[in-house]
Amino acid sequence: MTKRSAPGRVRRRVAGIKPFFALCLALLLLYLAGCSNGDPANEEESSHKEGLVSGTTSSLVTSPPALEADSEKSAEPPKTFGIIYPFAHPFYETITVLAQEAAKPHNVQLIVKAPDEANIEQQIRMMDNMIRQKVDGIALDPIDSDALRPIIDKAAAAGIPVVCFESDSPESKRLSYIGTNNYEAGIQMGKTINDQLNGIGMVLVETGMSNMLSLSERLEGMLAYLNEMTSIQVLEVRYNEGSESAAVSGLEEMIDAHPHFDAFIALDFISGSSSVLVWKAKGLKRPSFTFGMMPEIEKAIKNGQITSAVSQNEHEWGSRIVEGLLQANAGVTLPAYNDTGISIRTMAE
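Structure (tokenized):
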């Protein structure tokens, strides 16, 4: 009887062991699944996606032999450069796009700021905030060279390299100026006008901010050439102070006051853009000259609203800003003057 009952006891033991093994197997599978979540390949893929969002390069997936080196590079904290414009305008948006393209391969993030309208105090606050954020470099287009000088020097004292572009602050501790010689650019504008008017006539002039060094230098150079080398008379000079509405109204008032003028000269891109609107509205055919190139001005040249444009090759500013600040961070001495030169666009082209 004992022998007959033994198989039954064995079967009961086996039946009890099966659920235990099933439970152990389930726990083992869960453990293995948890381990797979920590697989280095998965972690690498995740970090790569985060890197793409922050603007780093995507070479991790295209060059397996360089995978380890690229991973180490992307793990380094990106550098942050600040760019501060005089005011918000589509002209500067183009510069931003080009700067972003130049920054992308170098693991550089950009903080771009601009007052809604030209405002010295806002530029100073923007600079101060970037100093507090401890950015790795700042590119500034100063509205007023003297007013911005103390905050530029403050950034330099904090170990933050500063470069100026378009307009300079030569008495400050900025490392470099990116742009053209604006006095010479003003002379070039005078020569262009002289060629068009054959050395005689009466012109209207509009420019931007009265305190901006670059604009003052352009006006000075142009007037020097016209007064010394031609018989062209400047009837009136107006300042729009960075306001498009002021530029339009100022030009219309000058035209009403001097209907016999022979040509209009814009020393900043806002005055140039405004002249296109006024020329269209009034159906004017008289020569019009401007500084600064952007798609709107190119179209106006083709359509005959703008006769000629003097460009500082602004399309190079973005890349030169990024390159200069990268070199400064690497300890390279920058040239005090990074000349972008001058180019002329006319209706004949």
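Residues 2-37 form the longest helix (36 residues). Residues 22 and 28 are 10 Å apart (CA to CA).
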